[in-house]
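Document type: protein sequence-to-structure record

Subject area: structural biology

Format: plain text, a pair of labelled lines:
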Amino acid sequence: EVKAIVYAVCHPDGVVAIAVTDRNYPKTAVFRGLTKILEEFTTRPPAGWHNMDRDSSVFSLDSWTEKFKNPAEIDNLYAIQVR
């Protein structure tokens, strides 16, 4: 039985966003959220991100962690479907 699913979205600049969810989490919300994270990161990346070898305190995922707890907050289409 599948207990978790790993999703990955790669930006053309070589940055990858990854999410691990349970099998019931809406796929569209995962992909929309990961895409938004990549857009946010690549439009204002931390200086020298190509050479980073540890976590950056400049770009925080804390707000995204909270958003992922509620798929409707990430994906407007999903929000409409669950009304």
Observations:
- The chain has a mean pLDDT of 86.
- The radius of gyration is 14 Å.
- Residues 27-43 form the longest helix (17 residues).
